[in-house]
Specification:
Layout: H1 2-25, E1 31-35, H2 42-58, E2 62-66, H3 73-80, E3 88-93, H4 94-103, E4 115-125, E5 127-130, H5 139-148, E6 154-157, H6 163-175, E7 180-183, H7 187-195, E8 201-204, H8 206-214, E9 219-223, E10 247-255, H9 260-274, H10 277-285, E11 289-290, H11 295-316
Parallel strand pairs: 1-2, 1-3, 6-7, 6-8
Antiparallel strand pairs: 3-10, 4-10, 4-11, 5-8, 5-9
Length: 321
């Protein structure tokens, strides 16, 4: 028995330096970040803008792999089931890790157990915009008109069960109004129909709407948080609707089981990138307020946001078509 114990202790002594050496050697080859949305979209553009700085901090090539489909759950599942070695990372958002799991059936991952949170990247508000010919010029006027004519006003979304859809449902509940939901397959057709007057309202990211707002093709009524892109647009609280503060957040995750030393190295690199002035300017130009980039902050956000949005989905009755 003593001999067995001696052998086990000896093996542990040998393995410890080996594990440490492996961690020290990371990363020894390119790292891939899976974006669970199509190329050219807002999330894709954001991550591609960060990739060069991350590559510089990690002294290794950072590649982007778009795996879109099923509200972001296909790409997220691919990350969850990848080797936990730090070479496959994923982008986690409010949609993929807090909303989609509540509305998409058969998703092959758990947002809290299938991943090791690397760090929170940032937050983006949602802005409520209206067709240019809508009589209401303020949020208060919109709510007044909606209550006076239940079921008459419509709101577009970028898809059934999307975050823009759920925020619209939240708005209906918060204002006790009856708005008709019109889902579209993506932001582009929804915005086109809004500008053409086929729908009345839309909740979306400021970065995707700022040019149309500046050009007078649509009008902004309120946003969930202050945005550097739209400093003149009041928040919902400032416009008289307190408690309406939902945001889109972005983070970086690794598969569960990734060595803590590797997760820390990735988190440290992300934190340095987010502290860079150039990165801050890039994020703000995309309508994103930078976060701290720490694993602890992201873990706390996930633990709060996953049950919160599950409850929103349940109370709204939203299901995927």
């Amino acid at each position: 028995m003593k001999r067995s114990l001696f052998l086990l202790l000896g093996a542990a002594a040998v393995c410890a330096p080996v594990a440490s050496a492996l961690a020290d050697a990371y990363p020894s080859r390119p790292i891939t970040i899976v974006v669970p949305f199509p190329a050219g979209g807002g999330t894709d553009a954001l991550i591609r803008s960060l990739a060069p700085a991350l590559s510089q901090e990690l002294h290794q090539t950072v590649l982007i792999d778009n795996k879109a489909g099923a509200a972001g759950t296909i790409g997220s599942a691919a990350v969850a089931h990848a080797a936990p070695d730090g070479y496959t990372l994923g982008v986690a958002t409010t949609s993929t890790h807090a909303v989609a799991l509540a509305v998409v059936k058969g998703a092959r991952y758990d947002p809290l157990r299938s991943f090791a949170p690397v760090g929170l990247i940032g937050f983006s508000p949602y802005v409520l915009v209206a067709r240019p010919t809508l009589p209401a010029k303020t949020l208060a006027e919109l709510i007044r008109d909606a209550k006076a004519a239940p079921g008459k006003l419509t709101f577009a979304s970028v898809g059934q069960g999307s975050l823009s859809h759920l925020i619209g449902e939240q708005f209906k509940q918060a204002t006790r109004t009856d708005l008709v939901h019109i889902p579209y397959k993506g932001a582009s057709p929804a915005q086109t129909e809004l500008m053409g007057g086929q729908v009345d309202l839309l909740f979306d990211n400021p970065a995707t709407l700022v040019q149309q707002i500046r050009g007078g093709r649509i009008k902004a009524l309120a946003q969930t948080q202050r945005s550097a892109l739209l400093p003149e647009v009041p928040t919902f609280k400032e416009a008289g609707l307190a408690g309406f503060e939902s945001q889109l957040w972005y983070g970086l995750v690794a598969p569960a089981g990734t060595p803590p030393a590797v997760v820390k190295q990735l988190s440290d690199a992300l934190r340095k990138v987010l502290a860079n002035r150039t990165t801050v300017a890039t994020l703000q130009s995309n309508g994103v307020a930078p976060a701290e980039g720490t694993s602890a902050q992201f873990t706390a956000t996930l633990n709060q946001q996953v049950p919160y949005w599950a409850n929103v989905v349940k109370t709204s009755g939203v299901v995927m078509e």
